[in-house]
Design brief:
methyltransferase, 20 strands, porphyrin biosynthesis, binds S-adenosyl-L-homocysteine, Rossmann fold, 4 domains, alpha/beta, Cobalt-precorrin-4 Transmethylase, domain 1, five-stranded parallel sheet, Methyltransferase, Cobalt-precorrin-4 Transmethylase, Domain 2, 4pyrrole_Mease_sub2, five-stranded mixed sheet, 509 residues
């Protein structure tokens, strides 16, 4: 993957298939292209969650059809990617599904080729095959179909005559899949039947396939058009026609999971959100990722560095959040290049999430509360462990963290230094689509993983959709929510991410 750091390096444009929507269905190469990008040019059908793989400062240009202000024509998109690539940039052009299956990827490639700039095509998983698979419909099957025909339901509207030969299509063996066909369902199924296809042929329509909000409509060639009208079924959907649809009754795996059909909002930082949303998605939930907070360097980075440098002189290092651990070791390895420089200091953490982070750095945790994973619990555990009189402690914390640790430990006679490792600020970027979904489609539950996620969410002033339940990771977060007038419906028993997921499952399943 070419990096653009050297100013003299030539630009390159990657035409990347971003897959049909499930964030796990981006290819490894596609992800590498996002990581390498100076500019991301992305579309309506491409999952905005991929933006988290981009390096900080990567320029993002949305050229999707649903763009609010204005829509770029295909010519303008072509011009844009050629111009950016000529400027020497690494341009990653993300398209839904596969870039060359009804995605105009070939036209963009031709423009880049004509302009004489470097480009690569990075294939993606197409909705034409993955969509049916997520509805429990294999596009080929030894018993039903040894042939697959894929066609578009929406040709270039400027074409005078259709280039599709429905007489041949209707008679073709095997499975037929068509994209962009919802609006013309009556016309397409009608032409099939006119041309001799059996109206009883099984048919499925899969909307927002592979996303948590996937919906599937099952009918026959003869009945689908009426069903679409009746259900008010809208694009984007992939249509599949053939006996393979019968397999769904045996292998409908995706829509049978416990939280399928439930929409859950997650509000952590863009870097941390993935762990929680992945767990919820695995259970079948439709997750809206709405990061409300972001972690930034502390105001006084120098003071933080000095305390980290002296960390080996303390008896205890105390971490009260995973972010504190990350910030600490980032600084530690800027100062030292040998892990042993940490010396014999003992490590105490507030709970399992923070402990996990410490273990990622190959250090053992000496102390953690047994169940009460809050500052008070940690102070109690330390007090049980030893007399804290005159014990030197370095507490690594966020700027906004509650003062409990310092106050109570000082009260016990300890000498506490506070290393302010990071600060939490409201996340303002790239949330428009998530907010629009929350407002327009509503949600069953919103999850909060810290008091700051509550505060920053409420500061966005988004009207809470009717019927939405509030889930909190623990007592401190719940208290923050109640203070701001929210009713907390669900509180995790174990104050951890897995504990929160369990509580959500219990409440919604
Ligand atoms: N290149 C894309 C297709 C682009 S055409 C691909 O390979 O998937 C756009 C059409 O693709 C939509 O109108 C719809 O028919 C289909 N499509 C794309 N993503 C989809 C999804 N997640 N669920 C259902 N249909 C989808």
């Amino acid at each position: 993957m070419s990096k653009s750091s050297a100013p003299s390096s030539p630009g390159i444009c990657y035409l990347v298939g971003a897959g049909p929507g499930d964030p796990g269905l981006l290819t490894i190469k596609g992800k590498e292209c996002i990581e390498a990008a100076d500019v991301l040019v992305y579309d309506y059908l491409c999952n905005p969650e991929f933006l988290r793989y981009a390096r900080p400062g990567t320029e993002r240009i949305y050229v999707g059809k649903k763009a609010k202000d204005h829509t770029l024509t295909q010519d303008q998109i072509n011009e844009l990617i050629v111009k950016l690539t000529r400027e020497g940039k690494v341009v990653t052009r993300l398209k839904g599904g596969d870039p060359v299956l009804f995605g105009r990827g070939a036209e963009e490639a031709a423009e880049l080729a004509e302009a004489g700039v470097l480009f690569e095509i990075v294939p993606g998983i197409t909705s034409a095959i993955a969509g049916p698979a997520y509805a429990g419909i294999p596009v080929t099957h030894r018993d039903h179909a040894s042939q697959l025909t894929i066609f578009t339901g929406h040709e270039d509207p400027t074409k005078e005559e259709t280039s599709l030969d429905y007489a041949k299509l209707a008679k073709a063996d095997g499975t037929k899949v068509f994209l962009m066909g919802v609006e013309r369902m009556e016309e397409i199924t009608g032409k099939f039947i006119e041309n001799g296809a059996d109206p009883e042929t099984p048919m499925a329509l899969v909307r927002w396939a592979t996303h948590g909000r996937q919906q599937t409509l099952i009918a026959t060639l003869g009945t689908m058009a009426a069903k679409v009208k009746e259900a008010g079924f809208k694009a984007p959907a992939v249509a599949v026609v053939g006996d393979v649809v019968k397999e769904r009754k045996n292998i409908n795996w995706f829509e049978n999971r416990p939280l399928f059909g439930k929409r859950v909002v997650v509000t952590r930082t863009r870097q941390q959100i993935g762990v929680l949303s992945k767990k919820l998605r695995t259970l079948g939930a439709d997750v809206i990722e709405l990061p409300t907070i972001r972690i930034e360097e502390p105001h006084n980075l120098m003071a933080f560095g000095e305390l980290v440098q002296d960390c080996h002189t303390y008896e205890w290092l105390i971490f009260t959040s995973p972010n504190a651990v990350d910030a600490f070791f980032k600084m530690f390895y800027k100062i030292y290049n040998d892990a042993r420089s940490i010396g014999g200091v003992r490590i105490a953490v507030v709970g399992p999430g923070t402990a996990e982070k410490v273990k990622e750095h190959h250090l053992a945790v000496d102390l953690m509360p047994e169940k009460n994973f809050v500052a008070e619990g940690l102070v109690a555990a330390l007090k049980d462990f030893q007399n804290m009189e005159n014990v030197n402690v370095l507490w690594v914390r966020g700027e906004e963290t509650r003062e409990v640790i310092a106050n109570e430990l000082t009260g016990l006679g300890a000498i506490v230094d506070e290393a302010i490792a990071y600060r939490t600020v409201p996340e303002k970027d790239d949330n428009l689509e998530a907010i629009a979904r929350l407002v327009n489609e509503g949600a069953d539950m919103i999850t909060f993983t810290s008091a700051s996620t509550v505060e920053c969410f409420l500061d966005l002033n988004i009207p809470l959709p009717a019927g939405i339940q509030v889930a909190s990771i623990g007592p401190i977060t719940s208290e923050a929510a109640r203070k701001r007038g929210l009713t907390v419906d669900v509180e995790a028993k174990a104050n951890t991410i897995p504990g929160l997921v369990e509580a959500v499952l219990e409440a919604l399943k």
